[in-house]
Amino acid sequence: MTNPTTTSDTPIDFSALRLQLSSGSEKVQQQLIQQLATLGEPGLEVLMDFLLQRRDRLPTWIDGKIYQILHRSEFSPAREFLQTHFPAGIVTLRSQSNIDYRTLQQLLIEGDFQAADRVTLQKLCELAGSTAVQRKWLYFTEVERFPILDLQTVDTLWSVYSEGKFSFSVQRGLWLALGKNWEKLWAKIGWKNGNTWTRYPDGFTWNLDAPVGHLPLSNQLRGNRAIAALFSHPAWEKREQGAGSRE
């Protein structure tokens, strides 16, 4: 059996990999994370150290990817590390409305995007109130009243655990880049093909092979007024103004 800490009889310099991981670009970090995940316990230890160093920063999908790798590993110190330092996940679950997002975080950690999408809809309805919970869909006026902090929490969860591919803010960015053209957006994110809406649920792609912005779906938002209210929500302006700082 080949020693995972050597390549062609050449020892792997984990100190160099550690330095590259800390100082490299996002693209370099992505490549190194994948490499370290294949290098056994020493590689996982580098990832644990890196994640701990970043604990006081706003989490990004880089942190989420490392967390998922450690969470899925059979290396017991990695599980113990996560339980000690990140017992509920990498994202702090803030809510102005006392909404519990723990189930959503766990589903996204596991990569169960279809179940996470259903829970996202449930949580948005909880934000809107008991009538929306019973109705199971939203009026645009209810979307407008969503608390900023809650919408940012849901958005961060999706982004962090999807390698940055899925979130409302990603969808909004595409919409703006397409000149706020809804038909172009529907096609871009795979919600519509020509004049045909993608059929729920089997027509959608519930993994990272999906187009950027494909999820969260939250099917009720495909009406333009509700999703326009979502994309115009002040949560995104606040996030853009405060980018790079922890609230």
Automatic annotation (TrEMBL):
Residues 7-87 form the GUN4 N-terminal ARM-like repeat domain. Residues 95-234 form the GUN4-like domain. One of its GO terms (cellular component) is outer membrane-bounded periplasmic space. One of its GO terms (molecular function) is tetrapyrrole binding. It comes from the Bacteria. InterPro entries: ARM-type_fold, GUN4-like, GUN4-like_sf, GUN4_N. Pfam families: GUN4, GUN4_N. Belongs to the CpcE/RpcE/PecE family. This is GUN4 domain-containing protein. It comes from Scytonema millei VB511283.
